């Protein structure tokens, strides 16, 4: 389902990105059309189109005139790299700042993470 905490067209774009990352839409595969997305998600076609437009602008999708939208070559790798950088900014950097403020060494932090993964 779509994330209500962000603009609808951004959530639409992220849903397509998720499909690319999980392999539902491999490179060079067609993605749902604006009208298909709008009908499935029960949203305005203009909103669905704006979400797809974001992905075209980002180079994730390519338009093939008269045929539809397709996953661009290298899109999966590019999305994975972009999301890794966002993960670092949103989660790792704040974690390290808080650990430093609490006097937790990198080794202690790594140990905490290892223990949590084992749970």
UniProtKB/TrEMBL annotation:
It comes from the Bacteria. GO terms for molecular function: DNA binding; DNA-binding transcription factor activity. SMART domains: HTH_GNTR. Keywords: DNA-binding, Transcription, Transcription regulation. Residues 6-74 form the HTH gntR-type domain. Gene3D superfamilies: Winged helix-like DNA-binding domain superfamily/Winged helix DNA-binding domain. It holds the Pfam family GntR. The keyword Transcription applies. This is HTH gntR-type domain-containing protein. It comes from Agrococcus pavilionensis RW1.
């Amino acid at each position: 389902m779509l994330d209500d905490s962000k603009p609808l067209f951004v959530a639409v774009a992220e849903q397509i990105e998720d499909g690319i990352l999980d392999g539902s839409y491999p490179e060079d595969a067609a993605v749902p059309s604006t009208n298909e997305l709008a009908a499935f998600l029960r949203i305005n076609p203009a909103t669905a189109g704006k979400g797809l437009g974001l992905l075209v602008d980002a180079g994730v999708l390519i338009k093939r005139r008269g045929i539809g939208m397709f996953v661009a070559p290298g899109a999966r790798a590019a999305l994975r790299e972009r999301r890794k950088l966002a993960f670092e900014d949103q989660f790792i950097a704040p974690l390290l700042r808080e650990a430093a403020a609490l006097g937790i060494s990198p080794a202690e932090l790594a140990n905490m993470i290892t223990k949590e993964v084992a749970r």
